[in-house]
Amino acid sequence: MHILIAEDDLDMQKILKLYLQREGFTVSVVSNGREAIDFLAENHAHLVIMDWMMPIQDGLWACREIRRLRIPVKILMLTAKGENGDEIKGLTCGADDYVRKPFDIQVLLLRIRKLCRAEHMLSCRDIRLNPDTMEVAKEGESLILTRTEYELLKCFLSNQGQVLSREVLLDHVWGMDYEGDIRTVDTTIRRLRKKIGETMIQTRIGLGYVMMPDV
What we know:
Elements: E1 2-6, H1 10-22, E2 26-30, H2 33-42, E3 47-51, H3 59-68, E4 74-79, H4 84-92, E5 97-100, H5 105-117, E6 122-124, E7 127-130, E8 135-138, E9 141-142, H6 147-158, H7 166-174, H8 184-196, E10 201-204, E11 208-211
Parallel strand pairs: 1-2, 1-3, 3-4, 4-5
Antiparallel strand pairs: 6-7, 7-8, 8-9, 10-11
């Protein structure tokens, strides 16, 4: 498992690298957000530990850029900023988790392991779906979905950018033996849109529906 540390404090770099290597992780280190983007453009990492306050380009900028470029990596934001509004800002910019300084290294390691186990989590913009726990969140806040809404969302997240016809959605979500009204798909999508955002699932007239990573 490869972890990238984006941190300008040299002492913090050394401490994090030492503990992570002891845990068996492969570790690379950069000193600002620009270097983090350049590194990820050429190398694969499973997780980025991203400090918020860095020179040249800060962690918030780098986090947004990673999501804009659709780089498949988990992000743990690490910062001394302690206000709730800062935590919300960090999570809504695309971070998967947020840890405040000072922190207990064992707690940080637990959060890292949790994120690495959730590497296969499905996501689109601010929506996250964990297939293992069946948990769904929007901007870090849990969403309550029915079983059908959950399966429908999972189908869209697994096929982003693809137009899915009502027939395909019926087979995947309701099953091939379903004999009800095909318009059930439309009704369920309307309910789902109210929970995840009206623009997440777009209509393609005469063809079906599509979930686009970008608006």
